[in-house]
Amino acid sequence: MTDLVNSPKHYKNMSITLVLEPIALTSQLDFDLGNAFKYLFRYKNKGNPILDLQKAEYYLNHAFKYGNFKLYKKVLRESNLIFDAFVKNGDNFLKACKWDYKYSVRENLESLSFWLADEIKRYEPFKKDKNEIPNIYGTNTVKPKQEVPKNLKSALVETGFFTPKEAESITKTIEELHNTLMSD
Length: 184
Prior knowledge:
The protein is mainly α. It has two domains: about 110 residues, no CATH class; about 50 residues, no CATH class.
């Protein structure tokens, strides 16, 4: 039996899902903050996250210097339903930086700036220093000693696992590897 009070048939097909594109928000902002938000909305999905994050950082810094904070206060508030939808729904940078209406727009943008700096560090590629080699996981770096210990051969023989000839061969291989790493 149909419940005509709580679920009338004539309203069943009227429910819609509203899909908001980021341009609905970015077009309400000025060039700098609109661009910063554009790059932040897309950085995980465009193929080069570090580049989009760096561009967002550039535009966000420019917005801090030259931005229209009167406009930002008008747009970036809870009563702007488009902005509020992005703050409260979906997986985006506004949720990640913990945008909170109890703080001023400037404070929230500063929080966004700190989050952005951390996100850039997270996505930066490993930078190889001349004297560093990656550990087995490829993340942290380990600085090799400047020289192979002179007593390596005798230390290997003393373990009882290697003959003097084997220890000499191992020492030679280690020295060659060390020299190769140090020359890069």
